[in-house]
Design brief:
With about 270 residues, the chain is mainly alpha-helical. The protein contains eleven helices and no strands. The longest helix has about 35 residues. It is globular and about 60 Å long. The termini are far apart. Its main location: membrane.
Length: about 270
């Protein structure tokens, strides 16, 4: 294969990854609104835990059974701590994003999320001490300005929801930078599927006691809803599997581009999980 053909193939592959991420994000976003609206299922921490349980199971199946990629071992305590930190940041971003959707419309949530590249650029510089080109920073100005204008003119503005949305946006940016480091650092490099395999169970450990403490009787309520309409279980299963696909494509896009390009391409859509 010629260099030109290889370059074209790589571009089509990247476009396919971004398209897959778009589609799965939209599906998860719609389910995030559908479950509370139609079933009164307002338990964002429990939903996030279901998502991470699916990530644990499906990642193991893909690596250990289907052998899509080789199994990689954690090589040091420091590497484990980095993965644990990524899991904690990820949980915070997802829970905050889900909470914000209870108070803010999807359109406003996405408008605020458009500022993600700004946070990504800040965290990338602080953690790697490497800046982007001047033109990259210039392109961030209208993005951030648009988010500020949208925030000031939103008729259904809710302060707590806005704070949660900003927190989710910043956490998503930090997650992208951390996962980029973990997927590229020499000596600690993990491919996307192995990173998700190790990250997901740690997230479940964080989320299980949190949901039991903060979302009273969520298991009993879920079972009661299932007795009235069993479709809610299928929705939860589909949501969890789709959320796994969101994270897998997220990691792959980060690997094939960069953390900041990822947010420029698609920062407004990561309202998932």
């Amino acid at each position: 294969m010629s260099a030109k053909a290889a370059l074209a193939t790589g571009r089509f592959f990247t476009i396919g990854l971004v398209t897959a991420w778009y589609s799965s994000n939209i599906g998860v976003l719609l389910l995030n609104k559908y479950l509370p609206s139609n079933y009164g299922f307002k338990y964002p921490i429990f939903l996030t835990m279901c998502h991470m349980m699916a990530c644990s199971l499906l990642s193991y199946v893909a690596i250990a059974w289907l052998m899509l990629v080789p199994m990689q071992a954690i090589r040091s305590r420091l590497q484990f701590l980095k993965i644990a930190a990524l899991s904690l940041v990820f949980c915070g971003s997802v829970v905050s994003g889900n909470v914000s959707l209870r108070y803010l419309p999807v359109s406003f949530n996405q408008a605020v999320g458009a500022t993600t590249p700004f946070f990504t650029a800040v965290f990338a510089y602080l953690m790697t001490l490497r800046g982007e080109s001047l033109i990259t920073y210039i392109t961030l100005v209208p993005v951030v300005t648009g988010g500020i204008i949208a925030s000031g003119g939103e008729p259904s503005f809710h302060l707590f929801g806005f704070i949660m949305c900003i927190g989710a946006t910043a956490a998503r940016a930090l997650k992208s930078v951390l996962q980029g480091i973990l997927m590229s650092s020499e000596g600690e490099k993990l491919n996307s599927m192995n990173l998700l395999l190790y990250m997901a169970p740690i997230a479940v450990i964080f989320l299980l006691p949190t949901t039991l403490i903060m979302e009273d009787n969520v298991v009993g309520i879920t079972l009661a809803l299932a007795k009235e309409d069993f479709k809610v279980i299928w929705y939860l299963l589909f949501y969890s599997a789709l959320a796994y696909f969101v994270n897998l494509t997220n990691f792959l896009v980060t690997k094939h581009t960069s953390a900041l390009i990822l947010k420029h391409e698609y920062g407004v859509m990561e309202r998932h999980l």
